[in-house]
Specification:
With 208 residues, the protein is of the alpha/beta class. It is built from four helices and 13 strands.
């Protein structure tokens, strides 16, 4: 009698949760964080006509709430895109999803907690073209923000961005900081809602 080989695949369970502001999420026991709340980002001034670009969307904590304020939301996510798609459907949200990451345009290995994945990457300029423009940029991409070409921020009215420092990221890009300092009124929250080695703070910037 032949014995079938053991099933060595990772079995995951999932559950549905609802946040206090009535956003629904499907979460699983996958080996990475699934973020459902992002109080560190300021989104109340998203305008109805704003084209919103959410880079590093995770499972949708920012983009699902942004979609309540604007019907023009694009989310970029390289690792948790399957769950992100499920959560977009669950909330009947008008969110376009790009499976990829911010980068140089060359494929790269993206790490999020215990998950590593080869992913296409796109420059910010390319992502903006793919999204049909950008007025409001949210960016949380574990250090890849320093690859942004300053000129690609032209035309962006508002920026909400987590800024990283070593060991998470390379050394900050002075040209990007100078561009933001010259053209935006900004503040940096030095104490995000969590304390993580390698996080400089949360940038809140409005075009002058």
């Amino acid at each position: 009698m032949n014995t079938p080989p053991p099933d060595l695949s990772r079995k995951t369970s999932s559950q549905q949760i609802v946040t206090c502001d009535l956003v629904q999420f499907r979460v699983t026991d996958a080996p990475y964080r699934q973020i459902t709340k992002v109080p560190e980002y300021q989104i109340s001034d998203i305008l109805p006509d704003d084209r919103v670009l959410d880079i590093g969307a995770n499972v949708g904590a920012f983009c699902l709430r942004a979609a309540r304020l604007s019907p023009h939301v694009t989310a970029v996510e390289p690792v948790t895109a399957d769950l992100l798609e499920e959560n977009v459907r669950l909330n009947h949200a008008d969110v376009r999803i790009i499976r990829g990451a911010l980068g140089t345009g060359m494929p790269a290995e993206i790490t999020w907690d215990e998950c590593r994945r080869m992913s296409p990457t796109y420059t910010l300029g390319t992502l903006i073209q793919m999204a049909g423009g950008c007025d409001f940029l949210k960016c949380d991409c574990e250090g890849a923000e320093w690859l942004i070409e300053p000129r690609d921020l032209d035309g962006i009215r508002r920026i909400e961005m987590e800024l990283h420092i070593p060991p998470i990221s390379p050394v900050p890009n002075p040209a990007l900081l100078d561009y933001i300092g010259d053209r935006y009124t900004f503040s940096i929250d030095r104490s995000p809602v969590y304390s993580t080695l390698g996080v400089m703070g949360i940038l809140h910037a409005t075009r002058k």
